[in-house]
Structures are given as C-alpha cells and as structure tokens.
Write a structure and sequence with these properties.
144 residues; seven-stranded antiparallel sheet; two-stranded antiparallel sheet
Length: 144
Amino acid sequence: MGAEASYGTQADGIAALLGAVGDAAVVLSYEEDRTFAALSLSRFGSVGSSRLDWRRAEVLQCSPAFDGGELGKLLISLASSDELAVVFWGNLAVPSLALEASLLAAHAGAVLDCCFECWIYLVDSGVLIEFQDGEGFTVGRVPR
C-alpha cells in the first residue's frame, strides 16, 4: 500500500486531541500534508529513519525536557497567537493537523500524549519544532 493510500487511516490515534480542540483543528488531506511538508520537513535531510538532520539549519533552541509544559512554553515564545501551526506525526497513517499555535500550546500535553515523535511547523515564522520522546525538543529555522 502506498503512502497516499495509507495516509489518514489511523485518525483514532489523535481522537483525544481532536476532541479537546474541536472544530478549531483542520485534519489535512494527503495533498495538503505534502504541500506543508514541502515547505518544512522535506527541506531537511534525515538521520536514521525519523530524525531530522539539523546541520544545514539555524538551530534556535534545544531542550532536554519532553513534556507538554515545555512544548506549550516553546509555542508561546515562538509564535504569534493566531499563527498557523501544522502538526506532523511520525506515522503517515495518522493525519496531520493545522490549527492556531495558541490553541496548540493550550493542548500541548494532549499532542504529546498522541505520539513518540512529532514535528510542528509554524507557518508564518518558518520555524520547525522536532519532538523525540525521551530526548526533548529541537527548534530551528527551516532551511531555504
């Protein structure tokens, strides 16, 4: 089964988060996911199967914390309250989401409860946050 065919087939993985944020979150189609990925994740190389190679990027901050409180603080400090944030999960079967960064910050714990790894792209800022469970957060500017 190709990536497009399996994309979004496991939305139950984010059901609690969707329940918490309601209609304020948009579940992205495969095409929307790939468009936002082209502007963010795809501009990085990879290290192993799921970690980004930050060598070509301007790293703004690294944090060893790996909890919702820290993610909420990062989002509040990096994004304007109405800035669009796109959440990518480590599994394409779980559909990506788009919502306001302030709402994402308020539900940061629920985001991390959904996954062991995720990436949050702040669209206006051109900033990406990488989360790896047990390792914390890396924040940097998306390479051009």
